[in-house]
User: Fold these one by one.
Assistant:
Number 1:
Amino acid sequence: MKDDRKKEKANVEQSTKRELSPRKNTKKPNGHWFQQNLPRIADRLMTAYVSHGDLQHLEGKDLPSKQRISGILNDILTILFPNLLGDASLTETNVWYYLGSTMHSLYTRLEEEITKSLKYICTKEQECPVDICQERAQRVAEEILECLPEIKRLVSADVQAAYEGDPAAKSVDEVILSYPCTYAIVTYRVAHELYSRQVPLIPRMMSEHAHSQTGIDIHPGARIGENFFIDHGTGVVIGETSDIGNNVRIYQGVTLGGKSLSPEEISRLRGRKRHPIIQDNVIIYSGATILGGDTIIGKGSVIGGNVWITSSIPSNTTVTIATPKLSAQKSTKNKKERHD
Amino acid sequence: MKDDRKKEKANVEQSTKRELSPRKNTKKPNGHWFQQNLPRIADRLMTAYVSHGDLQHLEGKDLPSKQRISGILNDILTILFPNLLGDASLTETNVWYYLGSTMHSLYTRLEEEITKSLKYICTKEQECPVDICQERAQRVAEEILECLPEIKRLVSADVQAAYEGDPAAKSVDEVILSYPCTYAIVTYRVAHELYSRQVPLIPRMMSEHAHSQTGIDIHPGARIGENFFIDHGTGVVIGETSDIGNNVRIYQGVTLGGKSLSPEEISRLRGRKRHPIIQDNVIIYSGATILGGDTIIGKGSVIGGNVWITSSIPSNTTVTIATPKLSAQKSTKNKKERHD
Amino acid sequence: MKDDRKKEKANVEQSTKRELSPRKNTKKPNGHWFQQNLPRIADRLMTAYVSHGDLQHLEGKDLPSKQRISGILNDILTILFPNLLGDASLTETNVWYYLGSTMHSLYTRLEEEITKSLKYICTKEQECPVDICQERAQRVAEEILECLPEIKRLVSADVQAAYEGDPAAKSVDEVILSYPCTYAIVTYRVAHELYSRQVPLIPRMMSEHAHSQTGIDIHPGARIGENFFIDHGTGVVIGETSDIGNNVRIYQGVTLGGKSLSPEEISRLRGRKRHPIIQDNVIIYSGATILGGDTIIGKGSVIGGNVWITSSIPSNTTVTIATPKLSAQKSTKNKKERHD
């Protein structure tokens, strides 16, 4: 390796010597500076990699690819809502074949990415007699395909709940095409199936992709019932061990979070119940925050906007902030204020 | 169709038989499993499509394409701010021709997408003697092009308002290049023109595209006056029937929303006034929520951060939350808390 | 130019005459309308450009490109975390060469974009004897490459702080691959170096790109210490002159902002201290707002969720909103409410 490096350095030297003429209007990078400094900077980065363990997974291991994960989600979305494709050549007669070929391709890509994620965290030094990671990935990919009809049933009900819950919705198609909750909830329902099967990395890559697209951050570990609707959604956070019943509706900026933990508690509680239970038919308005693993919002209750809750609420109860005293005073005219 | 399916199944059978050798290290999908299960899963999905009406628009109908809608918005953005193109070959001499060719291409694509959206919701069974959808789409595309100079005037004033309203803004160019409000407000002003002409689906597809890019969710139905500035913007929600005057400035996390409605009220109020009126020269600070179709914020008033308002405020009034009693207590040292 | 236009108009006339046959089912744009109206609309847009100064930078000047800025950030990200590439062909042996070639390409692109940004704002009428803008761009690009090992040290510590601070994090790799704070903080640390060297436009283009991807809006001017963690992050705003110490953790929806300013104050305070100081070991929970250039949050203090602060807090103090009086009342059954 040392020899290789020397050779490359020599090459760089040669190829950059021509550039050492006066620099005005040259479009070429500064060869002299490169020659003197690049190897040193690379060496310092290498040292940093070693001390932070960045290289331990490098040797011959692939990571799941963000781009392919996003492609997988888009394929699942069109399997669930084929009219989303907006493809005039797709008809009632050939959609069955479209499904077959898309699921075939989906399977292949799912299996590949899951295999990568399993091998990536695998600590076995020796080669296995059978490729256990790939075998397990195939089982999981099969099970995800088996889940698709049930996921279809669930997300169609979610879309219907959105249409019925939002007076601004003009049609079910509008909800499918242009509501962020469609993408966020489809992603959640798929990522949750992978999470439940202990697939590493991919469920969170999926949920973060949806978060980036929609502003809605649903941890794949959460449990969410039927007919779930999130309106607008920017800033919504649903923590890993949240448990949400049927017919629940929430608005932008709602947090279902964990309470504060000391460092000791954090390592103890990794994977334990830390987030609230929301029972059936609850509505939570914008900006409300509900915290804690033993907080239960009872059936049919309504949590008002901006409410901050850290203990349980009985069923059929409406909780609102006691109207905060507003201080209203006449402004001096012509004095416009700004901040940043 | 049944015969076709049998044939395909036979093909699949044939092509997958080779793969039934022991699976170790194979990169091919599991043929046996496919053969046994894929047709069954596809059948279940078909049944779900039928019961949810997913196939009713499939037959020979295109949907507007998200990708083309985003391309249309980007073209409009460069027509409005040609320096955004950052193209050295564009000069004062040839920008006129650039405009002509871009508007020509814009027209074609607008007309196509609008035609699709009109045909998509069209319930006519028989073919029309004249293609009414396309004729209407052409009229609308023409009118949008006619609007461009006025939209240019409005968004240039919005950009100027941003520069004047934000002490962190270094130049008008910086606002055009890197403020999310530029993209969000240009999109709103275009989507609003389409919404006003009863174009289905596309206005909300546009506003949701901008929402995804910026975190700012402005319904295309809202009415917004001149010199409008949204700073930062993440989490802003402006509802369908909001009515905003001139010289209004709002900050991140502000909601102009509707009050709670019963299911009966929802179907009654679809399309009716449900969101507040914000008069001229109002400033609304971050996190404030203003709800209701009969709530009016009077001229020149200032709504403080986190304020929650469900009734009207007179003009020239500053409303702030009465400083909430803060409970401050000395922490035990070395006890760092975390939550999620 | 006038002659050219006439010629083009003639061409358009000719090429569109064929389209003036009856319009049914034609897929071609409406030639007659074009001929009559497009030149007029283009003229009106040209007039608007002139009155808004849009053309003043057009003549032979490039703007930094959003796409290239995003490419530069992605390259830096993989230099900092090479395992993110997920490329099985990258090994401990060849990663050094990968670094060399990536930094070489990074340098070239950085230098080009910085040169553009400097020339764009340059008001010199005459050509310089030496290309000062490019020389300065080369110096800055060199300095950014020199910074990379230190940035690597900082962001690896930030990632470690995220892993230790979030009980939902399964591994450091999960944080690197799927936590929005990774992208937001890497972008901030790079953009801050460019901002500190007075590079125009690019730092804010970078920070807005990260804002668009993550919902986290960190102004490149802010100063942020070591081991910084933002959880979830949607809606976080950190203003230009904020000053954040070491081991600080903040949650979604937190604003570090400026107080209201009159227009006179705005022009006076551009670039002055307007945002708070957050000392070491502070935690700020979701939705809290801290405003003002003379507001100091003392060492080790904890700011509770939704707290609104405009004056200093001593060290080791926990500030929470005095539990707001919640008004809880039994709901009428069967009355489900919705809003939008």
Number 2:
Amino acid sequence: MKLWGKGRSLDEKVEQFTIGKDREVDLKIAWFDVLGTMAHVQMLASIGLFTSAELGSLMKELKNVLLSIEKGTYRIEEGVEDIHSQVEKDLSERLGEAGEKIHAGRSRNDQVLLDIRLFMRQEIMYLVNRVKSLFDVLIKQSEQHKSSYMPGYSHLQVAMPSSFGLWFGAYAESLTDDLTLLQSAYHLVNRNPLGSAAGYGTSIPVNRKMTSRLLGFEDLNYNSVYAQMSRIKVEKAVSNALASIAATLARFSTDACLFMSQNFDFIRLPDEFTTGSSIMPHKKNPDLFETIRASCNKIQGFPNEITLISGNLPSGYFRDYQLLKERSIGIFEELSSSLEMTLRAVENMIINPNILDDGKYRYLFSVEEVNERVMAGESFRDAYRKVADLIESGDFKPHIEINHIHEGSIGNLCNKEIQERMERLITGFNFPAASAAIERLLSSQ
Amino acid sequence: MKLWGKGRSLDEKVEQFTIGKDREVDLKIAWFDVLGTMAHVQMLASIGLFTSAELGSLMKELKNVLLSIEKGTYRIEEGVEDIHSQVEKDLSERLGEAGEKIHAGRSRNDQVLLDIRLFMRQEIMYLVNRVKSLFDVLIKQSEQHKSSYMPGYSHLQVAMPSSFGLWFGAYAESLTDDLTLLQSAYHLVNRNPLGSAAGYGTSIPVNRKMTSRLLGFEDLNYNSVYAQMSRIKVEKAVSNALASIAATLARFSTDACLFMSQNFDFIRLPDEFTTGSSIMPHKKNPDLFETIRASCNKIQGFPNEITLISGNLPSGYFRDYQLLKERSIGIFEELSSSLEMTLRAVENMIINPNILDDGKYRYLFSVEEVNERVMAGESFRDAYRKVADLIESGDFKPHIEINHIHEGSIGNLCNKEIQERMERLITGFNFPAASAAIERLLSSQ
Amino acid sequence: MKLWGKGRSLDEKVEQFTIGKDREVDLKIAWFDVLGTMAHVQMLASIGLFTSAELGSLMKELKNVLLSIEKGTYRIEEGVEDIHSQVEKDLSERLGEAGEKIHAGRSRNDQVLLDIRLFMRQEIMYLVNRVKSLFDVLIKQSEQHKSSYMPGYSHLQVAMPSSFGLWFGAYAESLTDDLTLLQSAYHLVNRNPLGSAAGYGTSIPVNRKMTSRLLGFEDLNYNSVYAQMSRIKVEKAVSNALASIAATLARFSTDACLFMSQNFDFIRLPDEFTTGSSIMPHKKNPDLFETIRASCNKIQGFPNEITLISGNLPSGYFRDYQLLKERSIGIFEELSSSLEMTLRAVENMIINPNILDDGKYRYLFSVEEVNERVMAGESFRDAYRKVADLIESGDFKPHIEINHIHEGSIGNLCNKEIQERMERLITGFNFPAASAAIERLLSSQ
Amino acid sequence: MKLWGKGRSLDEKVEQFTIGKDREVDLKIAWFDVLGTMAHVQMLASIGLFTSAELGSLMKELKNVLLSIEKGTYRIEEGVEDIHSQVEKDLSERLGEAGEKIHAGRSRNDQVLLDIRLFMRQEIMYLVNRVKSLFDVLIKQSEQHKSSYMPGYSHLQVAMPSSFGLWFGAYAESLTDDLTLLQSAYHLVNRNPLGSAAGYGTSIPVNRKMTSRLLGFEDLNYNSVYAQMSRIKVEKAVSNALASIAATLARFSTDACLFMSQNFDFIRLPDEFTTGSSIMPHKKNPDLFETIRASCNKIQGFPNEITLISGNLPSGYFRDYQLLKERSIGIFEELSSSLEMTLRAVENMIINPNILDDGKYRYLFSVEEVNERVMAGESFRDAYRKVADLIESGDFKPHIEINHIHEGSIGNLCNKEIQERMERLITGFNFPAASAAIERLLSSQ
């Protein structure tokens, strides 16, 4: 059954090829599709296209569909193209004309746009929670290990003293910047495209502000042509923001893999977090971090894929965009897994407390020596040259004492300020507003 | 002269290769480098590392350097690695010990970070102005041509009636979403990395809140290790936001190239905006739009290049990042040119007023017919099937009358709402705060 | 069961996360894994590590496994990491010690390398066949429609006369260049990595030339460290070559979508190849070509994804590479579908025979006029200027007569030369050599 | 002066924007442009469009232009769009009508295609020479250090014994695979596009086989439409092949940076190859390798940029392609520099001869122990488990003796076989054929 079927049937292979995995993928957005239809029919009723009896029976059947989706029993039938068609089919079969009326004033183009928005809005909420959990564990580890020193590197060369407090805290702060970016993407997500129909609006006098309010959107995509164009812009903005989180995790994993090497031996994971080799009986490999890293690198490749698919296409809908749906939906789960696994790894990480005892790190303290001289009145460049001479001649003796007090240094991590920023950010998403609207919609008749 | 020179000299070819175009590129950030040093020396004076006489003479010489940069006469000498070294060299030569003291408590790593931040902060301000100008022209054209109709396409197939009002307005709204994204990148830019030194802070008790205030930053990158990591995150965030603007321009150009084809003939540019062929005497080519499009596509490739260069590297500074500087700086100019040229093209665009007269667009109005029947009480799906039958049998007669009234439709463009959003966005950048701080710094002694 | 299990067990979530879809994906390479083991055990027997009785029973059991794979009944059990472990487990259970011996002198690292090579070698053979079929249809259409003219465009502006002969033929020739590139990737694929073990060889005196011969490889990856590094190089080379074919199909689809627009109306597909709209009763959309295009654009993004995952990693195996396996395997199927669908579309394409009758194409013939004057003795630039003047003044009258005779022009398509190149290319792959070796291996005891 | 100027002039800003850096960039291909014109005029003379006197004077003037280019004095004048226009202008001014005739039967579209092909053909020849030099040094170092052992890593974990012989040799072999890929790209480059004009051929009866022969091409792009499409395909193929070489260098640099870290201390560079820090007096940084790596990563981003610019465009020339020219030309120089610097670094690298003495590497030899037991008759899996038990209980005692003899192992590097492959590859390019043709052309009258 095609919504557009006019007696003729589509070549079977063409159908299979163009539909691809849509029937499967659409189940991930089915719940949101029904939600959107609930708002749409309420709005249509408000402009006289449904009687209140029709509206009541539609709302009731839509809730039945929601229940079936929640129970995992809902299916898109063979021969039905997508979730939108399936829901219309179900309602038409169960309610007759009332079902056949629901598509007035919209198109599958704005419907799928809406579904993806609602899906992303909720997934971002879940993701922010996961980010916050990881953030909390990083801050906790940072505080706990603030007196465990480690070498700081630049160019992978031993540079200056660092600490596990700084290291864990750095990734916590990184996540705050990631959420700043995610928040602006969230604002784009939180705009209502419904009513833009196939990208050119409709002569049905739809009330787009009403559906916006019913679905809890902050704002709407006004211009119908832009609403359609925004599909790519928003999916790209979201994937860029997710990629920024992914970049944080990937870099952390790279650090971790390096620090777990015998040549560093800064950290360890418990044995049950490492894997072995089929031929080398001694191996304890950090597959966990490598899998996080590679998975996050894949996520970082997605924005480019969006551009490759959408670039140089004129405005207006193209079926091409359908091929982005599977991955746009899937990367939330991928990133979420990586966040969860990173959290478990950070929680269980074992720190080597005596790293700096090793002689190869003695030059770490050369700048401390320069700075002591500076504080005692020598000019910086002069002190630098004198210490350099001591090093060259082999006469440098490090004073192993760390005395950093400024904001963001070993002795003053500013974790509290970073936590306050995180709190402000989470408030800024204003998730409860969206949730409250959805609850109201679900409980309306 | 190397800051780190210790008698030995660097292999000449290695020097040339590793420095690359730095001496040239650094001139673009020289002004900001001096600004940062002005804030840094004031802070060092406040913790007792300069007498007030030293501070006065340093500020005076730094202003001289600024003047020389503004006049375009400042140069990075052969044998000097970068702008940071050149300024220290100049001050040391002119002021002796006071100059040799200025590098206390910082590193070239946080200096270049700071320079790029200050540069980007200013360039974003310029760019937002350019975006606003283009936005205004798009809105103006949208209003002016709101009654000029054109076909709307989906799948490049004639779909439903659209208008030049909708078309121009769509790109105006697109720019508001772009600025939403740019604003979050701007917030990341507007954080002070100074004081993080080589990425591990310093034992000099620097006052990072003071330099933040002096330079007009909203906030600071607290954690020193993160400050260094943020280099990539911020350059990527900015380039993603610029790429979003670029995507808007590229799509507009694609539309324009298509609409200028003889097969569409929707718009024209004045002859002096088109180019000819070396062999075909009749050609008037849209090289302007093609150049904008390709240039914007290049910009869209830059975020991926950043990831390729920085991916899978552990935390800590690497020289690799230096190779991003040239392009991170250059894309502002590239995008700015494309914005300017798009504005000129939009301003001068000539609209074909009678497009819909052509018979090939008659099915544009099929949904209008369906909707009329819906408003008269038929169910949507039923009306759809009836109109489909009329089309199949050749009996469809379009009523060419457009009656769209909802938000964002042909008859109700909502340009005012879009303009209000733009105003709120520009206020949200709060550019005057940054400018005022810089002016205060420049006028301090 | 882990090959490396030593009593301890892996955290369940870590296991699930790091294995990902491996159990599923590995079934695609299972057949080749067994093949590789057949060659490996024959080689081990030749150096005395198996008795001939052991070898006989191993070969017999391996053939049973092959049969089970071919029947689709083979499974990787829950708790077993991968295909390599499963086969060793099966053989050990069925044959005892002989099974426990098979992993001598290799590692899962060179095993998976080998499996992917053998898989790709076969898939390339299938793919070349598909390319050849599409090529044949393009040539056939080119010949059939060589007198059907169409406008040629540059900058999307009407430029000079072209023909469907040229258009179809262009894509046929494009495929020959694609196969040139695929052939060099095939040569890299057709090298034996087996024996490089975990990337550092083995103290077991394996005979790598023997396994190369048994498996029909042209050559071997000599250096063991390089053999491991080649994993990325070869997967990237193959994906680049596949991307080149994909680029050909994507551009063809873009042309087709454009030419199917009402504004061009050059070609049509039968109704059963087009899809409709949920709201516009008149639509016949080219979803088929759009899906091909988007799918081929995704394929073109894969080489970049490989670089993102593998870039900046040092030599030696990393688990990260495992995440490439799924897609490296999957894109063969994706590209193959797009080739098949393009073939069906080309075969069924309906050509509009009277395109040039439309007045908007009259300037197509301006260069013909210039050239006539050139052949009559005027200088080119002079003739160009005169025709330009005629066009400006409205006095240009086209002689609609096409008289192109040079190689590769409308009148001399050179399809025969292009076909000969295709034949040489296919011979150059030398597929029968590989197939013959595999058949010998399968029939050996 | 525009070839297509018809009295009207182009808006100045539009001109500046669309021409961009063309006047500069075109000087890099000027020499080849003249060469192409020499072949073109000889061919035009052969079909009667020039008298032999005209041909003689054209050849003479073209040689004058070549000389001026070689001396570096040739310039593209302000107001002239490109090299093609400049040469026609010069010849027309010096020779009158003979100059005005030269553009018959071609277009700037096929001219620039030709120029880039000839440029690339020569640059590939230079590049292959540089690759060969680096290859030779790698083989030399491999042979020289074949008994210097180092740990082999997988997952960055100490794995099995390796050697500098293996390490250097691996990169030598990597370069052979890179050249295999470059060779197929070279075959695409070595095809003549001239005569395809603006992409649709010409009614002038040009002899494309003659120009192919004169310019030393192996073959021609037959189909005129394809000739134009091949622009992107060939630039992408070349950039992919260059990216493959770049990937080899980048990975080598990553290894080198890691091995120069104090935590590895496997290799060193002489002091004059390392750089210092502005604040840390002890630093000796591997900026050289980092710059090579980042530069090579940029090169690896170029193929994606080509796809972003060209993707989803229909067939036919677009000005967009012009924007690829600068970088398509520039990456040869970038890669060439990286090859040269890598060669200097490899030549001067200092090897630490006693790496394996360190206790942290003791488990390197666990597989040797397993294998000894296997050779003595134990089953592999059994021996593996027994050695694993020894390691767990702390009773493992490594026999530090390396006894690898198979192809590609520490004891049998197969450098000779790799060298032979390299020789065959270089012969396969058949550079002398192209050079001989160019010499003949230059010496013809």
Number 3:
Amino acid sequence: MGYRIAVVGATGNVGREMLNVLAEREFPAGEVYAIASRRSQGTEVSFGEKTLKCHDLGKFDFSKVDFCLMSAGSAVSKEWSPKIGAKGCIVIDNSSCWRYDQDVPLVVPEVNPDDAALHEGIIANPNCSTMQLVPLLMALRDSVGLERVIVDTYQSVSGTGAEAVAELEGQIRAHADGRRPEANVYPHPIGFNALPEIDVFRDDGYSKEEWKVIVESRKILHLPDLRVSCTAVRVPVFFAHSEAVHVETTEQITPDRARELFAAVPGVVVEDDPTAHRYPLATHAAGRDEVFVGRVRADASRDDGRGLAFWVVSDNLRKGAATNAVQIAELVTRRGWLAPARARAGAAS
Amino acid sequence: MGYRIAVVGATGNVGREMLNVLAEREFPAGEVYAIASRRSQGTEVSFGEKTLKCHDLGKFDFSKVDFCLMSAGSAVSKEWSPKIGAKGCIVIDNSSCWRYDQDVPLVVPEVNPDDAALHEGIIANPNCSTMQLVPLLMALRDSVGLERVIVDTYQSVSGTGAEAVAELEGQIRAHADGRRPEANVYPHPIGFNALPEIDVFRDDGYSKEEWKVIVESRKILHLPDLRVSCTAVRVPVFFAHSEAVHVETTEQITPDRARELFAAVPGVVVEDDPTAHRYPLATHAAGRDEVFVGRVRADASRDDGRGLAFWVVSDNLRKGAATNAVQIAELVTRRGWLAPARARAGAAS
């Protein structure tokens, strides 16, 4: 039999990758449905060796599926996730709509799996920039304690969507042909530039992307007072986000010990031999599920052994989105958390 | 009459820009000589509307010139700068060869002009990544005190040289044609990637580029104990370096006050209206002499008003190299510091 799964937003960058990951990981799926807006109805998408026709979100009966992996933006999620969840289908949502709701778990299976048990029909998938960071921060939290984190990002255009990938492709072609670049998706050309604007700006001068890294890290790590700062920057890279990270720890830690701790985290790969030009790279991480970390060193701005600097890279569409969503579904099935938490509590009492 | 100036390394990216800047700023030059290695002898370079033929470094008589603007790498500078300086010609050297020598001034005219008075024939021009940072750090040092600086860079390929610009161009063309990129200048493709390797690596895990930012900032700012950390990253941008900066100050400071202080520094332009998509950008800064700063905000990892985050962009070939070198020459002539410091002291006593 297997589980019945609906992928909402199946024609988008992340939706397509969700279908790829479900097929690759051999998730025990009985039926898989591709769902999209009416506009994309009839569009065909790949699921392993099969081809799926997209169903209309407005007409699909979610009572017949166990999981809805949703990557259709906050507006769609806000309207649909509660309705779908009420039909007994667990929504694993990739938008930012529910992440900050205290009743909705925000889960990275390697970091806070038990939070998933508390779901009432919706589980939120973290932002890509947060996702690749928290497994490493967890390792430090559990060994030497975390005081403060500064992270500056080098984010790929695929995080914006297929239209942004096409825009960078167009600007590359324009450059090769000696034409002026056209910019529609981003406010300035992304080709051969670094744009310090991702998502909208808040009154405090931070972009919402930067704020997500701050707030989501605290929630996932269960460190509500963790001091975090971030500058989020879009660079002309197609796939995978890179991050320069500077951490202050409560107790002393050496780079060697940090590498040991990082290597012990499931899904993390240490690539760290800079003199041999070996360190994480966006072009190497693209298409992979792991979080790659390297350039681990004692932070030069601390002389007391309580600072670390490192470089983290991961594919924003894979571990940063689709893979983590599928891992959440795997976690829920493995632990028997399909029913909402209150229903399970009622059944147990 | 005017001053007689030799530009050594005149066929390189920075050397050509030095000639451009000398012409544009109407430096009172009587004679300008383009000097290069024997290999480039006879090559023609532009100086304003004129064309100059390159002279052979090995045969040129430096006793007939007042200034030698040198951008020919550390090995050439190590051999030639002392010889040229001994002939009564002031060497303004763009390599890292003399920057850390305690007898050689390392000068940014807006920041530490008086240090230039101490020269004994050689004045060092700082590294591009340091150059654009220190005018802003100076403003904070002088108003609220500086405790700690973390800077992560987004550096353009022109900093590596003309061959790196050609390599990125080649990789763009390869991408447009569906061919595999070739990488010779960098250890990995720079096209559509972020490389956390600039210059060689030290035993402590920092790259020499990162170490330069740390050590040069301390020397220029006269803060030998300033705590600084840096991750230096090459991105697929042609001209201008961008930097994400996080600063801890001794006293409290608001973003508004920081913007006022920054705007008052000569050569600094505040571009800071992010909701209108206005912030410093590499493509806007290219070809300009100013240091552009924006995204100024209270650093979210400090809750005591003693942290600032901002984004700094400047053209690495202009203010980051050529313009600063010419400004040093202007400073020396304006203040009458042409003779070496000891000679001036002898004449005065």
